[in-house]
Inverse folding.
């Protein structure tokens, strides 16, 4: 069975040293309670829960899967008990508003905890995962009555939430949905339709499930402008707010999936189910985006968590597995062969995982700071600045971290060689589980269009300039620092090129809109690599300062600098290929006719 140790030392480095979370928390209303001692205690206890409770259920949950009997879903053995411990420990309410029963701690702290959950049991973590987004959607858009009925239960974790968007005939193009909402005499609605791919749509972990469902009213306009949002509980709350009559909601089947077997991915049928409108009519998509954006950040953290899990186990194996001698001579002469960690290609794979895990952690926690400020910042200008950065970085967190996360888990299998392909080691499960992260909550292609088309080009590049100016200021401040020249000089060059590439795409798109789609994924990956380069440069600066101050943890800081150097020299050059592919434009992609794709065989 794979093992896991929460990367608490690296978390402390990023939070306390690099991003100065203690000062950040002190500036937030209510954040003064998140003292360094409190944060450390929460992270340590979260690490214990993840390793001792969730990790032992990961492989067994994958092998057992979920069971559907008579419309009721049973989660794998131990999942329900683990969830009860999670609720009793107060974990679901960590970052929720005290008005609704939450503890009022910053969102970033909950995101750090979420990484540990994703590293140890991604499938289990999906049961409470969407509840936070459902609660946020109701907090922002629900009526007082809806908040009183559902919000406290979701915050406590005794009820869980889902997001019901996709239908059998449509995925991302939600304007095509067929689910209908018919008004009733008492002001409610009858919801009828089928939704697919609903994570945690039916299970036995909580006493009630609150579905947030997209549907169309009888007089709704065509397309996405005619979508409304409804809250549809599995059990209708009674007068005391407890689960009462069973609603017209049922699980028609469980999807047979490549991975995340321990989570119930359901086909949900709504048969004249009683629902209640959330937000204004025909504005449901805008309301749902509150939940979708939270989910997208959560999926990025899934990519990070799986990267860390794969790296830790690949590292342990590489230190132990003996094979061949080092090309430069025996490194362990007392043994019949050298550990494979001495071989350059194994080191390449391990360092790739390590760099993506540490870089991804910096990106998540940097973005989490923006989320804290947007939600709780006192200064309006600071909130606006943070919201611009959060909007820009969300698709990068979601798509880049899941793309490199899938790469990292594959490298983990490769380190194990043939043993990585065997189920008992657990490495192949990480690959299967990570594959979905590039798909759900918007594929990489969708995130790329969101980044380039909506966030950057529709703002005339202004949102990007907010971030590139920050990078530019850092580079200018450090351009005379000889110890950081190896990081600052290439970063400054790429930062300037980022703007030039953006302008080039924009100019081409004025004549051909296909240029945006043709460039988008390469643009997103380019953006991700440059963003991590900026964060690694900052990390290297922090590490240099710690060493200069005579830190007694010199080995950690030296390793951080060497990892940053590996990233800049062996991973960052990928931007060259992405830039060339961006500049190639749409013509090579669009020149071949649909009919010509099949030349050489008949369909």
């Amino acid at each position: 069975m794979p093992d896991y140790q929460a990367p608490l030392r690296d978390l402390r480095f990023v939070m306390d040293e690099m991003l100065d979370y203690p000062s950040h928390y002190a500036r937030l209303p209510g954040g003064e309670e998140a003292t360094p001692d409190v944060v450390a205690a929460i992270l340590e206890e979260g690490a214990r829960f993840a390793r001792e409770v969730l990790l032992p259920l990961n492989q067994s949950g994958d092998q057992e899967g979920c069971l559907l009997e008579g419309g009721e879903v049973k989660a794998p053995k131990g999942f329900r008990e683990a969830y009860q411990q999670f609720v009793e420990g107060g974990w679901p309410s960590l970052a929720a508003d005290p008005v609704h029963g939450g503890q009022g701690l910053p969102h970033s702290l909950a995101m750090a905890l979420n990484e540990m959950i994703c590293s140890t049991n991604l499938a289990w973590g999906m049961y409470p995962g969407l509840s936070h987004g459902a609660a946020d959607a109701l907090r922002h858009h629900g009526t007082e009555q809806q908040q009183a009925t559902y919000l406290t239960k979701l915050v406590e974790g005794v009820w869980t939430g889902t997001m019901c968007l996709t239908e059998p005939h449509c995925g991302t193009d939600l304007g095509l949905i067929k689910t209908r909402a018919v008004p009733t005499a008492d002001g409610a609605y009858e919801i009828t339709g089928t939704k697919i791919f609903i994570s945690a749509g039916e299970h036995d972990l909580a006493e009630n499930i609150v579905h947030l469902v997209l549907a169309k009213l009888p007089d709704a306009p065509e397309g996405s402008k005619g979508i409304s949002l409804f809250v549809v509980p599995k059990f209708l709350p009674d007068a005391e707010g407890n689960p009462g009559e069973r609603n017209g909601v049922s699980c028609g089947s469980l999807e047979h999936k490549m991975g995340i077997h321990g989570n119930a991915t359901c086909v949900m049928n709504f048969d004249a189910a009683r629902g209640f409108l959330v937000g204004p009519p025909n504005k449901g998509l805008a309301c749902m985006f509150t939940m979708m954006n939270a989910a997208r950040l959560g999926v990025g953290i899934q990519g990070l968590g799986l990267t860390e899990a794969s790296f830790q186990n690949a590292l342990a194996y590489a230190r132990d597995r003996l094979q061949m001698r080092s090309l430069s001579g025996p490194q362990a002469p007392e043994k019949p062969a050298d550990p494979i960690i001495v071989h350059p290609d194994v080191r390449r794979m391990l360092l790739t995982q390590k760099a993506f895990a540490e870089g991804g952690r910096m990106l998540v926690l940097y973005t989490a700071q923006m989320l804290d400020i947007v939600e709780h910042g006192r200064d309006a200008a600071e909130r606006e600045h943070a919201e611009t950065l959060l909007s820009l970085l969300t698709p990068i967190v979601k798509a880049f971290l899941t793309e490199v996360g899938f790469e990292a888990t594959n490298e983990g299998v490769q380190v194990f060689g043939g043993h990585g392909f065997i189920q008992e080691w657990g490495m192949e499960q990480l690959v299967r589980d990570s594959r979905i992260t590039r798909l759900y909550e918007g594929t990489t292609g969708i995130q790329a269009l969101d980044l380039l088309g909506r966030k950057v080009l529709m703002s005339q590049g202004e949102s990007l300039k907010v971030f590139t100016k920050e990078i530019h200021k850092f580079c200018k401040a450090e351009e005379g620092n000889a110890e950081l020249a190896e990081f600052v000089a290439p970063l400054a060059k790429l930062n300037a090129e980022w703007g030039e590439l953006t302008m080039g795409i924009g100019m081409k798109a004025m004549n051909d809109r296909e240029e945006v789609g043709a460039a988008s994924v390469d643009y997103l990956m380019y953006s991700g690599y440059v963003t991590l380069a900026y964060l690694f440069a900052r990390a290297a600066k922090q590490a240099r300062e710690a060493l200069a101050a005579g830190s007694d943890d010199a080995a950690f800081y030296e390793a951080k600098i060497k990892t940053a150097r590996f990233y800049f020299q062996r991973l960052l050059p990928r931007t060259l290929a992405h830039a060339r592919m961006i500049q190639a434009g749409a013509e090579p992609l669009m020149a071949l006719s649909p009919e010509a794709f099949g030349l050489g065989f008949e369909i």
